[in-house]
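Researcher:
Attend to token order:
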Amino acid sequence: MAAHMGAGGLPPSAAATVWSGAGSLQDHIQMKWSTVMTQSLSGKTVAVLATDGVELIELTEPVKALKAAGAAVEIVSLKAGPFQGFNHLTPGDKVTADKAVADVQASDYAALLLPGGVANPDQLRADADAVKFVRAFFDAGKPVAAICHAPWLLIEAGVVKGRTLTSYPSLRTDLKNAGANVVDEAAVVDNGLVTSRNPDDIPAFNARMIEEFAEGRHQGG
């Protein structure tokens, strides 16, 4: 795994289904910092599915949060080895994939993280193994966290119909057409699925991700 994937701080769990703004989240962080210790992910392995074009901060910051909570993390991509990360439209650090998606199964992991970036999910949704991998988490009721453009992959996997979620604005018509109830909020949880809009939402996203991943399987997911 690349050097920039090191351990870091973890926001605490959120108490509500939706965070509407950074101010209320920061108040919650100050009041609930001690609750992080009760939401350990020790013993859980989380898959991060990404490829060329991934928005780096949407990968590195959630991974820091997962590691800080005690989770083991494996980077899964279209093939094992390095792929190109981006800082918006500018190439950034490369990330090293531990395994190819064709060689793993959802049963190997407790949860799934899907970072964004425009090109990243656009390529993944065209790969049958990646789509099958994502769908299997939902079939098993395992928690999934997807930020920014990542819900494109959820549409391809056929798992958004009837769910409430958010995304980057340019995806929202696609989500509505796929049967989703789309809201404009910083972090949304629907039966184990956590979604957020953009990098500004990462503190709220991480908080809800840790909470849902700690809860584990969700019935009817």
Helices lie at 22-32, 56-68, 119-124, 128-139, 151-157, 172-177, 202-215. Confidence is low (pLDDT under 50) at residues 1-22, 28-34.
